Amino acid sequence: MIDPYPLHATLRDLGPVVRLRKYDCWGVTRYEGEAIAELEGEILLTELARSVRGIAAVSEPTVHLNNSLRSFAHIPLRLTAA
């Protein structure tokens, strides 16, 4: 892509967080969206730490070509309830 700015402007017009179905991920286009995503991640990890006694890797993680967040179903971990 030679000039990404028109695409970025279009995405920003759609909102701070945009679903990119073609790539099966979310795009964060503004600072507000980034702040919300970071806060949600902190809340998720805090609750996970409270409800899990142990975490063990069960296989090698899959390497992806993009930076998108994947669902927990794709993370090769085994959780032990507290």
Could you name the key traits of this structure?
82 residues; alpha+beta; two-stranded antiparallel sheet
Can you characterise this structure?
With 82 residues, the chain is α+β, with helices and mostly antiparallel strands. It has one domain (5-81). The protein contains two helices and four strands, in the order αββαββ. It has helices spanning 5-14, 31-51; strands at residues 17-20, 25-28, 52-57, 77-81. It has a two-stranded antiparallel sheet with strand order 1-2. A two-stranded antiparallel ribbon has the order 3-4. The model has no long low-confidence stretch (mean pLDDT 76).
Number of helices: 2
Summarize the main sheet: 2 strands, antiparallel
Sum up the overall morphology in one term.
elongated
- Count of folded domains: 1
Low-confidence stretches: none
Structural class: alpha+beta
Oligomeric state of shown chains: single chain
What fraction strand?
15-25%
Q: Short description, anyone?
A:
With 82 residues, the chain is α+β, with helices and mostly antiparallel strands. The protein contains two helices and four strands, in the order αββαββ. It has one domain.
Give the SSE layout.
Layout lengths: L4 H10 L2 E4 L4 E4 L2 H21 E6 L19 E5 L1
